[in-house]
Amino acid sequence: MKATIEHITPEIATRYLEQNTGNFRRPSRARVMAYAADMKARKWDVNGDAIRFNKRGVLMDGQHRLLACEMSREPFTTLVVRGINETSTIDTGKARTLGEWLKHNGIKNASISAAISKLILQHNAGLWWRNGVSFEEYSNREIIDFALNNDALIQRAIPISKKIAIVPPSLIASVLLLGTRDSMGELQDPQGNKTAMWFAEGLRDGIGLKTTDPVFHFRQKMIFDSKRTVRINSFYRRQLLSKAWNMTALGHDAKRRHMEMKLTGPTAHKLINNIEEATE
After folding, report:
1. Whole-angstrom distance, CA of residue 279 vs CA of residue 195
2. For residues 262 and 243, is the Cβ–Cβ distance under 8 A?
3. How large is the average pLDDT for residues 155-169?
4. CA–CA gap between residue 88 and residue 15 (Å, rounded)
5. Strand partners, 7
6. pLDDT at position 134, please?
7. Is pLDDT of 276 > 50?
8. 215 touches 248 (CB < 8 A)
9. How many other C-beta atoms are found inside a 10 Å radius of the C-beta of residue 8?
């Protein structure tokens, strides 16, 4: 077995992919696109992960990286190992989660922070309304960078969201962060926003809510759902919470029928910015 550090150009990637005759895994286009975005942005680092060929010269590991190199037309440097035994142990080890990476970088509440970052990236890409989006559409580097760059504000949203039992903390934190952005689209501290705090407190305990408040009807629906055998899915819940927020931000009254997916009021897939102005 021989290991070398090689500079892989798109032409070399194409030649190596011609030796991809023994790989039983279909490549994921979403993963290739995510890797290609990192390569294009010059964020692809040498990390010890190898492109591997067996003793017969067949490519055993690395097809996504090579396809990303072809797609991005950007070269990258990597470890290349030749002469390995044909084995079933490649890629069967447990990968590090994003939460583990963020914890390693000193981020508190790392798992929730990773989930919040994914949701906000999904919203910013215009995918908030899509069901079943694969987060392979984002590279780990994009998610980690977003979490690190916005850590102070994310940490401010987490303690509010943790107190609300009827909604996953990552979802309520994402809605509060997205809903309190300024007019330039920059995230702000939700704890400094009166409407956001009122909304969160209403979700938490329901005290002082009126039957015309959108948050009242969303809360009732979630409490009812918690007692059902078949629960609503995360996509449906996200849309309803978005709608309750949008109606609150616009100062709209609500009835129970508004908490259905047939939307008749503000769209649920685009959150309102600058809600202090929206509610004046």
Report:
1. 9
2. no
3. 94
4. 24
5. 77
6. 54
7. no
8. yes
9. 20
pLDDT > 70? residue 233 = yes
**What pLDDT is stored for residue 29 in this prediction?**
85
Cα–Cα distance measured from residue 55 to residue 139, given in angstroms and rounded to the nearest whole number = 31
Partners of residue 84 on adjacent β-strands: 54
End-to-end CA distance of the chain: 70
d(C-alpha 237, C-alpha 170), whole Å? 12
Q: In what order do the strands lie in the sheet with 59-61?
A: 2-8, 76-84, 50-54, 59-61
DSSP-derived secondary structure for the chain = -EEEEEEE-HHHHHHHHTT--S--SPPPHHHHHHHHHHHHTT-----S-EEEEETTS-EEE-HHHHHHHHHHT--EEEEEEEEE---S-TT-SPPPPHHHHHHHTT-TTHHHHHHHHHHHHHHHTT-TT-TT--GGGS-HHHHHHHHHHTHHHHHHHHHHHHT-TTS-HHHHHHHHHHHT--TTS----GGG-HHHHHHHHHHHH-TT--TT-HHHHHHHHHHHHHTSSSPPPHHHHHHHHHHHHHHHHTT----GGGSSSS--SS-TTSPPS-HHHHT-
The tens digit of pLDDT for each residue in 107-142 reads: 999 999 999 999 999 888 877 877 655 545 667 778
Give the residue-averaged pLDDT of 35-45: 89
Report d(CA 152, CA 200) in Å as an integer: 19
Picking from 190, 183, 208, 207, the residue whose alpha carbon sits closest to that of residue 245 is 190
CA–CA dist 8, 152 (Å, integer): 38
* pTM given for the model: 0.69
> 110-124 and 140-149 are packed helices; what angle lies between their axes, rounded to 10 degrees?
110
The DSSP bridge partners found for residue 81 are 3, 52
Q: Which residues does residue 221 pair with via DSSP β-bridges, in sequence order? A: none
| Cβ pair 250, 266 in contact under 8 A | yes
8 A C-beta contact, residue 63 and residue 20: yes
